[in-house]
Amino acid sequence: MQDHPHFDVIVVGAALAGLTAGLALSKAGLDVAIVAPAAEREDRRTTALLAGSTDFLGRIGVWDAVRDQAAPIAVQTLIDATGRLFRAPDVAFHASEIGIEAFGWNLANATLLAALRAACEDAGSLKFITGSLRSLELGEEVSTARLEDGQTLTASLVVGADGRNSVVRREAGIGAREWRYPQSALVLNFSHTLPHNDTCFEFHGREGPFTIVPLGPQLSSLVWVQTPEHATDRLNWRTDALEREIEERMRSIFGKVTIVSDIQCFPLNGMIAHMLGKSGMALVGEAGHAFPPIAAQGFNLGIRDVEVLTQLASGRPREKLGAIGRAYHLRRAGDVALRTISVDLFNRSLFSGFAPLHIARSLGIGALASVTPLRTMLMREGVAPGSQLRFLSRRFSKAS
Ligand SMILES: Cc1cc2nc3c(=O)[nH]c(=O)nc-3n(C[C@H](O)[C@H](O)[C@H](O)COP(=O)(O)OP(=O)(O)OC[C@H]3O[C@@H](n4cnc5c(N)ncnc54)[C@H](O)[C@@H]3O)c2cc1C
Q1: How far is CA 141 from CA 114, 137, 172, 242, 265, in A?
Q2: Ligand 1: distance of its center to the CA of 164 in Å?
Q3: Which of 213, 258, 331, 372 is deepest in the core (most CB within 10 A)?
Q4: Is the CB of 138 under 6 A from ligand 1?
Q5: Which residues of the chain have pLDDT under 50?
């Protein structure tokens, strides 16, 4: 039998999820290879990281390197701009209400990717291999990965971090449920003449949310969800016309708007894998789940994938890594399904013409505006997902 380079873990994909997984697993003492083709284009998006995610990035030695370039989100304001009969009241959540400085921090993906990459390069037990996975043979103890250029590698655990069209997922024989939304997101950064006061604004419109997130002093990022036709049309507008439209939609709360980045457009769709892991294979990030950029859930969910995978792999004998997949699936399935369903329902409540959905959203937001324990619970849950469910189940078991 031919000898191939062998690793404890092969991570396929070197974007946000892949680099985070590779780094965390290598910090856990495992011998890791990250396999990916050279990056094709710069990721010009920004990511709002929840406090739980920045804690994890801190533990793997990345957060300190980017902290100064991230803008805090201390206030989150929801504004119903649907103009419908059943409108929700405006509601503002303040991080100080739950005794924390910020719900999260927003920073440029390029900054985070560069810091992750640098930390991976410094990690002694991590190797980058340039190439694309072509096929994968999952074995009980050893799995074999074949790359497009003919290289063959083996590992005890293979981590699919290769995005929504994951080859790892396909090769493991795992199907996925996929769907499309009648929406695209225009993404850009802009400077403004008035301060944002660390406030994120979500205007909920009939075509989707228009979300402004602080990015720096008098600098914010915009994710503007709308119909694909409107997005294509606006991409061709003159810059000054687009700036005026953005300013009007924001009701001029930030003063004059100047676009300072390229404008990117992302068609919106959703996907959830039928299984998140099996045998010696685990899917992290968008290889396992993808949904619209609403309420900063996507990569934050990916970080929780990596956190759980690292917990399962840490301290386990190397020869037992190949048994992690099923345990990983069981630990992650609930969180992933809950976030996918809630983002989907919320998104549909905006663009759908179904009045009961509008009523449910308005009542839900109305309750959050007026019922303090509910607000506090939601805020804590937003920052540390799962914490409130655990808290309630402890209270319930003490009471019974
Ligand atoms: C407009 C927008 C705004 C967003 N904002 C937020 C936010 O504020 N907060 C948040 O938490 N999330 C946000 N998200 C979601 C977040 O951006 C994604 O969850 C994240 O980028 C997914 O990263 P990933 O590494 O899983 O996948 P990808 O970025 O798709 O990376 C896949 C990697 O796999 C590699 N690859 C693919 N095929 C192969 C192969 N065969 N072999 C080897 N390598 C392969 C690719 O080259 C790449 O390196 C946003 C998304 C969008 C669209």
Answers
A1: 34, 11, 15, 56, 43
A2: 8
A3: 213
A4: no
A5: 1
